[in-house]
Amino acid sequence: MKIATWNVNSLKVRLPHLLRWLEENPVDVLCLQETKLTDDKFPISEINSAGYQVVFSGQKTYNGVAILSRLPISDVVKNNPRYSDEQQRILAATVGGVRFICAYVPNGQAVDTDKYVYKLAWLAALREWLAEEMITHADQGLAILGDYNIAPEDRDVHDPVAWAGQVLCSDKERAALTGLMDLGLTDSYRMFEQLDKSFSWWDYRMLGFQKNKGLRIDHILLSAALAKRCTACTIDRAPRKWEQPSDHAPVIATLS
DNA sequence: ATGGCCATAGTGTATGGA
Predict the structure, then answer these.
(1) CA A213 to CA A199: how far, in whole Å?
(2) Does nucleic acid strand B have an atom less than 7 angstroms from the CB of A149?
(3) From the CA of A109, how many Å to the C1' of B3?
(4) What's the pLDDT score for residue A128?
(5) Residue A112, pLDDT score
């Protein structure tokens, strides 16, 4: 089973990219973030025609998440039941016996802003909910995929000195991510040998991608039952080179 | 040179992203 996550930064703009990518990478489950579409505008038929079922939770202009699957999707939950949130950032569903959570963690804008406070509160609430979900789904396994908007370590940052203490890299954010992992989740990417300076996001400005000035902020976290089954995790930089790309690249994990 | 983009709403320019 191949599972993946991709922040598409507008599914309206990126639908052709998505369809091309699925053709070249026929993963079983794909979590999308930043669809930026209300549910009435979601391109269901195009995705069905590509061989995928899909569930989604969107809003106007910002945020929006979706889960695509080749296999039947059941037990869909929108949002974190423990956190009242206008913003559509969480979608959970069961596929092939595995519990999937698609997450678009708030960006946080800058340390010491209201948005940063919201990000930390949101992550604390996610941890509370995940603690329960981990128990409920311990046997079958739980995967939480998404744009975490956190670079876990300095090696996930192109210029750790410049980014030190900044949003996406601050100690409090990293502690929040560690807090999630302490529930028994593994960063699938770091289970395997990877090249130095591997990133999943590059700024559109300053020739970020061409100079590989990026961050690794998109992650696939796996519970123990799934980590045992995980045989590979990669970042696919290819679609970042296409015309009018998303600023994020997909992350793919293979489960036996 | 220390800045350079992009999507959205909406029609000039602000906001958010990361």
Answers:
(1) 8
(2) yes
(3) 20
(4) 97
(5) 87
Q: Which residues of A190-216 are buried (b: 16+ CB within 10 A; e: fewer)?
A: eeeeeeeebbbbbeeeeebbeeebbbb
Residues of chain A (37-96) having a beta carbon less than 7 angstroms from strand B = 60-62
pTM over 0.90: yes
Task: Report pLDDT for A140.
Answer: 86
3-state SS record for chain A: CEEEEEECCCHHHHHHHHHHHHHHCCCCEEEEECCCCCHHHCCHHHHHHCCCEEEEECCCCCCCEEEEECCCEEEEEECCCCCCCCCCCEEEEEECCEEEEEEECCCCCCCCCHHHHHHHHHHHHHHHHHHHHHHHCCCCCEEEEEECCCCCCHHHECCHHHHCCCCCCCHHHHHHHHHHHCCCCEEHHHHCCCCCCCCCEECCCCCCCCCCCEECCEEEEECHHHHCCEEEEEECCHHHHCCCCCCECCEEEEEC
* Regions of chain A where pLDDT drops below 50: none
Active site residue A147: yes
**What's the maximum distance between 2 C-alpha atoms anywhere in chain A?**
47
In the residue annotation, A62 being an active-site residue is answered as: no
Write the CB contacts of A135 (distance below 8 Å, at least 6 apart in sequence). Answer: none
Residue bearing tokens 């289970």: A191
The residue annotated as part of the active site, out of A28, A52, A116, A147, is A147
**pLDDT for position A69:** 98
Please write the tens of the pLDDT for every residue from A97-141.
999 999 999 999 999 899 999 999 999 999 999 999 999 998 889
Q: Radius of gyration (Cα) for chain A, nearest Å? A: 17
